[in-house]
Amino acid sequence: PGFFPAFNSIGICVTNPVRFTDATSTVYGVVDTWSWNFGDATTAGDTSHIKNPQYTYPNSGPKDITLIVTNSKGCVDTVTNRVDVIDKPPISLAFRDTLICVPDAVQLGAAGNGVFSWTPVSNISNPNIPNPTVNPSTTTVYYVDLDLSGCRNRDSVRVRVTNSVSLSVRADTTSCQGDPVQLMTTSNGLTYQWSPAASLNDPTVKNPIASPTTTTTYQVLAKVGSCSAVDQVTIFTVPYPFVNAGPDTIVCYNTAAQLFGTFSGTSFSWAPANFLSNPNIVNPVAQPPRTTTFTLTVFDTLGCPKPGKDSVKVTVLPRVRANAGRDTVVVVGEPLQFDGTGGTGYLWSPPTGLSDVTIRNPVGIYGAEIDSVRYKLIVTDQAGCADSAFVQVKVFKTNPSIFVPSAFTPNGDGLNDVIAPIGVGIRKIFYFSIYNRWGQRVFITSENGRGWDGRINGRAQASDVFVWMVNAQDYLGRNIFMKGTVALIR
Asked: What is the CA radius of gyration of the chain?
């Protein structure tokens, strides 16, 4: 215990020797052997067995130095440290070039490890510190030398000297109201202050961007130390051409909207033009197929070369699609439930037999004096857009029943190609089933008017007799069960 290998090094410059010092400590015995490897990959001779050796590296870069030490008690241990060998010590400068005005002074700035010295030594506060103050009367280049254990580097700083500040701004100009204009400046100034600052993006830069809304004179103060100069520029503003495309509007599907544009200028244009009745007038009629924004662009000759623009949005509401339901049949005295869809407002006509012509789902009841009624349903949305649909109601003067043909001919001629239940006065069909002679069910439906085309699993059946059964309910809640036969004829 108590054996701690360590070492120190002095000097990191290439071609100058780096001195290594053993710093190993031991509680028992004494350190009596040393084996150094200096990490030079260019040679195998970078070793030593003395206590405090030195080694000169032929190139720069990181070097891993290894020391193996033993003591008189037989303890052995190893330590490895990295040393960065450089070709010259780095110098960091606060700036490399600056400008001062007589008789001002400026502080030079350098940073690094080692001993600094500046030349020339005239007009300098202290040439042997990193940050001396200089006040030359003419442009001077100051050189700084840095010595780090014999490893040297040099850099320089130019201090330009002037007796005055040169300043010239751009010529007065005209701009469209509110548009950005760059205030260009030719100057050797180091700092700038523009006023008024309200319409400038940055009043402290050499070439700020101005966005005046009224004619404005900008003044700039340029300074180099205690020297300064002042100049100014005027930006004359002219307004954009006046234009108003009118208020946004909402129209029903496939209807027109009147546009109300106004302007003050020499010419104008609408875009897009293909949905307008006449794009060459200021108040055209628009009929777009979908929601569209129309832009009115105006030019004038009053000084602003850019156009004035305004837009109007024509919102086209979705098409109202009225649905009064499928044509149907009803039995005298039984209620018929209607079910209109498509909007928020409904109006049925004529009112014959209906409980309420202003609701979506009125109930119709018919006497024996009525054979049929054709209703028109007008459906409106929240904006008042409308659409219409029709439904035909046939009135049967019989009890509620289900009619099924006794034969059908599924030959594709459009006549009697399917066998289907036709419910009269029927609210709901629970099932309509067809069976072959072996009791196999070949078709089933619960939809009124949906039928069988004479095929089983896609294969057409030959002429034969089939049995059908139907279970349904009328509008008074009574169950109806019927059965019979139907002939398939090929």
From this structure: 51
Minimal CA–CA distance to 46: which of 62, 31, 33, 35? 35
Q: How far apart are CA 464 and CA 488, in angstroms?
A: 5
Q: Give Cβ neighbours of residue 274 (< 8 Å, ≥ 6 apart).
A: none
User: Residue 264 contacts by C-beta under 8 Å, 6 or more apart in sequence?
Assistant: 241, 242, 243, 298, 300
- Rounded to whole angstroms, the Cα distance separating 326 from 347 reads 17
Is residue 102 within 8 A of residue 226, CB to CB? The reply is no
**∠ CA 427-429-435 to the nearest 5 degrees?**
160
9-54 pLDDT, tens digit per residue, is 987 888 788 999 999 999 999 999 999 999 999 999 999 999 999 9
The token pair at 248 is: 């946004």
In whole angstroms, what is the distance from residue 233 CA to residue 200 CA?
Answer: 13
Query: In sequence order, which residues have a C-beta less than 8 Å from that of residue 278 and are 6 or more positions away?
Result: 284, 285
**Least trusted range by pLDDT, from 85-94, 281-290, 387-396:** 85-94
The SS3 of residue 209 is strand
Distances (CA, A) of 33 to 8, 78, 237, 361, 425: 17, 12, 89, 110, 119
With beta carbons less than 8 A apart as the criterion, state whether 202 and 208 touch: yes
Contact 53, 36 (CB under 8 A): yes
pLDDT of residue 368 exceeding 90: no
Question: What are the tokens at 361?
Answer: 């789902």
Question: What pTM value is reported for the model?
Answer: 0.47
From 143, 134, 144, 127, select the one nearest 99 (Cα to Cα).
134
Which residues make beta-bridge pairs with 424? 401
Nearest to residue 325, comparing CAs of 337, 314, 313, 317? 337
Tell me if the bond preceding 284 is cis, omega within 30° of 0.
no
User: Please, what's the b/e burial string for 351-364 (b: 16 or more CB within 10 A of its CB; e: otherwise)?
Assistant: eebbeeeeebebeb
> Token digits for 395?
């009135």
Calculate the alpha carbon distances from 246 to 298, 313, 459, 464 in Å: 14, 9, 67, 75
Nearest to 426 by CA among 404, 401, 405, 451: 401
- Contact between 376 and 322 under an 8 Å Cβ cutoff? The reply is no
Give CA–CA dist 331/401, Å, rounded. Answer: 9
